Amino acid sequence: MSEDFRARARAWLADNAPRRGSADDEAEAEARGQDAVLAEQKAFQAALYDAGFAGITWPIQYGGQGLTSAEQIIWSQESRDYDLPTGMFFIGLSMPGNTILEVGSEDQKKRYLPKMLRGEEIWCQLFSEPGAGSDVASLQTSAVRDGDEWVLNGQKVWTSGAQYSDYGAILARTDPSKPKHEGISMFIVDMHAPGVTVRPLKVATGHSPFNEVFFDGVRLPADAIIGEENKGWAAAVVMLRHERIAIGTMGSSRSSALGFDSLRDLAAGLGRTGDQGVRRELAELYARGRAMSLFALLLRQETQAGKLPGARGSVAKLAGSELGRFAGNVAADVLGDQLAGSDSEEFQAVTTSIIAVPGSSIAGGTAEIQRNIIGERVLGLAKDPGVDRATPFNQLRVGTQRQH
User: I want to staple 220 with a disulfide (CB 3.0 to 4.6 A). Which of 182, 224, 252, 355 is the partner?
Assistant: First the structure.
């Protein structure tokens, strides 16, 4: 069975998927236009689904293939040399999708998961706010019950993919009289609904991968809650766990701009491989990347076998962001004086990546937060005192909230 699956996956990828290094980079994708990239990725995701390679371990009744972790691992092994054009679906499938699968209602699973898997609907995650980043539980976006509906008001920020998403999983405060972790609910929000405004945010590279999103009297049906009312923090923990595992285990291709293969070839082309310092850094980059790949494989195998990594997902997230920053430093040393001012597209891709990598230590939870989680929940160190955990939220002065 497994070897038949491997042969089928290998043949399908060879016939349908672009090899590493042949896909658009971020600048090229923006130049082609969002609509063109969206149409291409939707078509590819649909083909992936029809071929039996989407939702490999998800239950058949929700659109998945109902296969085992062995097939998922085989797919990961066979597809690692390809640039699958599925980036627009990464957040939805790995975060909201897995969360709905774990804590959503039966109706939600049947309604949303098959369309998500086939690429018919794209999802985003709406957690962070201007005054609630690392401390997400301090969020102030509110959802107030109005008969059979909820009325949503507030603002989210750093939302990846909001500009092309159809739905989002959003955290909102539903009971401000409860302590901050206890009065939150998670909702499904239609990103095309009246009152939803998406504004792009330009980052240091000049691209706009993130957005700020405003909700002005957006009406949600009563059954839009994922999980239970006022139990949204428990659902958020589930989603954050999937997020950190997904980010930490997706790794970076050795042939990407800051990957080992690319930097080794760049160093050779510039005559830098004779520099002992550069050689040592490249060797360390290879070793770190290999260790990260093996750890990521372990977490994927455990997750697919039903053994959830828990807080160790933060180890993967932290290691991945640290690897990215180290690769950026190696790239800067390899380029040397040619770091700036070159018209070479290859050099420009590297310098853009160098500028972008510090963001990896912030996105998905800062490195400092990951270290706290690792210290407390993996190493068993004493927890930082939480002086506001038992205080009703409406008595706190957090973020932009002001006491009267």
Answer: 224
Burial label, 307 (beta-carbon count in 10 A; 0-12, 13-18, 19+): exposed
- pTM comes to 0.85
Vertex 278 angle, CA 276 and 284, to 5°: 105
Predicted confidence at residue 403, as pLDDT, reads 46
Q: Which residues contact 31 (CB under 8 A, 6 or more apart)?
A: none
Round to whole Å and give the CA distance between 220 and 148: 9
* H or E element in which residue 151 lies: strand 149-156
Residue 187: enclosing H or E segment and its boundaries? strand 184-190
CA angle 260, 371, 256 (to 5 degrees): 15
As a whole number of angstroms, the distance between CA 370 and CA 258 comes to 23
Q: Which fold has domain 125-230?
A: Butyryl-CoA Dehydrogenase, subunit A; domain 2 (2.40.110)
Q: Which helix (H) or strand (E) covers residue 291, if one does?
A: helix 276-304
Supply the DSSP string of 43-67, one letter for each residue: HHHHHHHHTT-SSTTS-GGGT----
Does residue 243 carry a catalytic annotation?
Answer: yes
CB under 8 A, 24+ apart: contacts of 342-350: 346/266, 349/25, 349/257, 350/257, 350/258, 350/262, 350/266
Angle at alpha carbon of residue 230, lines to 228 and 235, rounded to 5°: 55
Do 185 and 172 contact (CB within 8 A), yes or no?
A: yes
Q: Which of the following is catalytic: 243, 345, 346, 368? A: 243
DSSP category for residue 283: H
Q: Where are the domains of the chain?
A: 2-85, 125-230, 251-365
pLDDT at site 366: 82
pLDDT at position 404:
40
Residues of the chain with pLDDT under 70: 1, 21-31, 248-255, 304, 339-343, 398-404
Count other Cβ atoms within 10 Å, centred on residue 356.
Answer: 19
